[in-house]
Amino acid sequence: MPGPDKRCTEDEVVAELSSGMTIGIGGWGSRRKPMSLIRAILRSDLTDLTIVSYGGPDVGLLCRSGKARKVISGFVSLDSIPLEPHYQAARQNGTIQAAEWDEGMLLLGLQAAAWRVPFLPTRAGLGSDVMKNMADLRTVTSPYATVLPGQNDGGEFEELLAVPALELDAALVHQNAADISGNSVWLGEDPFMDDLFVRAAQRSYVSTERILPTTELAGLGDIAHLKISRMDVTGVIEAPHGAHFTECLPDYSRDEAFQKRYAATAKSDEAWDEFRAEFLDIDEAGYQAKVKELQV
Amino acid sequence: MSDVSTPTPSSTAVTRADICAVAIAEAFRGDGERLCNPIGNLPLIGGRLAAATFEPYLALTDGFYTLMDPQSPDEVPPIALPEAERVAQRTVAHWNPYREMFGLLWQGKRHVMMGATQIDQYGNQNIAAIGDWAQPRRQLLGFRGAPGNTINHTTSYWVPNHSPRVFVPAVDVVCGIGYDRAHALGPVASRFHEVRRVVSNLAVFDFEALDAEGVPTMRLRSLHPGVTLEEVLEATGCDVVIPGDLGESRGPTEQELAQINRLDPRGLRLNEVPEP
């Protein structure tokens, strides 16, 4: 049987969110970010958010506009511009709280939440200042002895970093295609962690380049690209070009000229205000129309 | 071939950047069937040079989501290709999206060469922030994968701008962990830790010396041709052991120089390490 119709708009998604929530955002750096949903959050009165992300301009925008109170990240980068200038400014000005984890730790935190276990153990982070600076992180002692090769001493009960589950109130991801119920297809070469984000969240929203009949999904790639199931999806938003200005391969690559323009807005309040008025204080259709004008 | 011997000199002019490429390649010598994962232009040239010459079984990344097995030395792709060319010139042998990369590196068959904004005598590396991490004077990249890399597999570092601001007595934020941190964790937790080499635009360092407590500490391994010991010491703000039999970093063979020029046809390495 076909699944339920979960189509909605970006603004309807935002209406289901509330201030103080922990929100996970899929994609990676400046790649396949659910930007139309981010832009809808920027237009809203949401505030005090905790953001979990392999961060890119999603994090920068939410920091600059005062929406984010705390950012838990594996990094925040625009890829072709290594340092996200608005996140950098927020860190240097002390306007946000930051938890900067090892990249792999973030994967484990999402996986733990998706599997409904309180933590997952890892060696990654031990001995580094991740442990020192993120004072809420704890270690766990293995109940099994580790015996090194050639030793007969009964071994040692290893201490490992216990990465806490990153339980999300909501997850926002962008996919190349989906049906009306949320079965989704990622194309390109990396699913990133989107499927973990939607499983780690109470409510998950998929924006997508196109909504197709379920019967057409498996033909877009092979079945390994049907990574997100409708069971993990609360709402589906048809958002062509919705990941702009980040890349969404193979549909489109990053809009480097626009990204440069965005990055330059960190230079002054005037530059930011101008950008905000021109591109963010308008609705998504208006934004897409503006972007199209720029590309002619 | 040792990395400090003098091979048949090349007839074409050899630049400092070429010396660096060879020194970087040498860091991967002996790795065999393992992922060679250099980050940055000169590290990529050096890593691919090793694969195209004396370490043919290294696995290489395409920079993104696949591992490549070039079918001959001349099929090891040049660096910094336009996107269409990058895709056309790779021989995909394995799908390696980010989550698989974490799986691979936690298993340990990887040798990464990262940059370092700061590095100290034990090989602690900082790429996260300058100043107090809580509210840094300058926010940098964050920890990225450095903590997980260094505790799980071999790591080397590339420093294109050797100065006392980079080689410091103590780094502001420990991202990649050095031998003192590994030592404090004990032999079980640190059993996969190895900081093998630091290559800079002036010299090559290893950790084949011990401090008073028996902890591996930075040792000058070789000076690049034309660089004096005084020059290196002036540019180094941390303690470094100077061995009695200090050698000179070797230059490329004819074959290596041809490969370096093929791997970097536009000479991007000279932007990173200009001629002194």
Structure keywords:
A: 296 residues; alpha/beta; Glutaconate Coenzyme A-transferase; 3-stranded antiparallel sheet; 10 helices; 11 strands; B: 276 residues; 10-stranded mixed sheet; 14 strands; 21% strand
Gist of the model:
The complex is a heterodimer of chains A (296) and B (276). Chain A is 30% helix and 25% strand.
Notes on the protein architecture:
The complex is a heterodimer of chains A (296) and B (276). Chain A has 296 residues and is an alpha/beta fold. Chain A has 2 domains: 10-102 and 166-213 and 220-295, Glutaconate Coenzyme A-transferase (3-Layer(aba) Sandwich), CATH 3.40.1080.10; 120-164, no CATH class. Chain A is built from 10 helices and 11 strands. In chain A, the strands form 2 sheets. In chain A, strands 1, 2, 3, 4, 8, 9, 10 and 11 form an 8-stranded mixed sheet that branches. Chain A has a 3-stranded antiparallel sheet with strand order 5-7-6. In chain A, strand 1, helix 2 (35-43) and strand 2 form a beta-alpha-beta unit. Chain A is globular. The N and C termini of chain A lie far apart (44 Å). Chain B has a single domain (16-272), classed as Glutaconate Coenzyme A-transferase (3-Layer(aba) Sandwich), CATH 3.40.1080. In chain B, the strands form 3 sheets. Chain B has a 10-stranded mixed sheet with strand order 4-3-2-1-5-10-11-12-13-14, sandwiched between helices. In chain B, strands 6-7 form a two-stranded antiparallel sheet. A two-stranded antiparallel sheet of chain B has the order 8-9. By secondary structure, chain B is α/β, with parallel strands linked by helices. Classes of the chains: A alpha/beta (296), B alpha/beta (276).
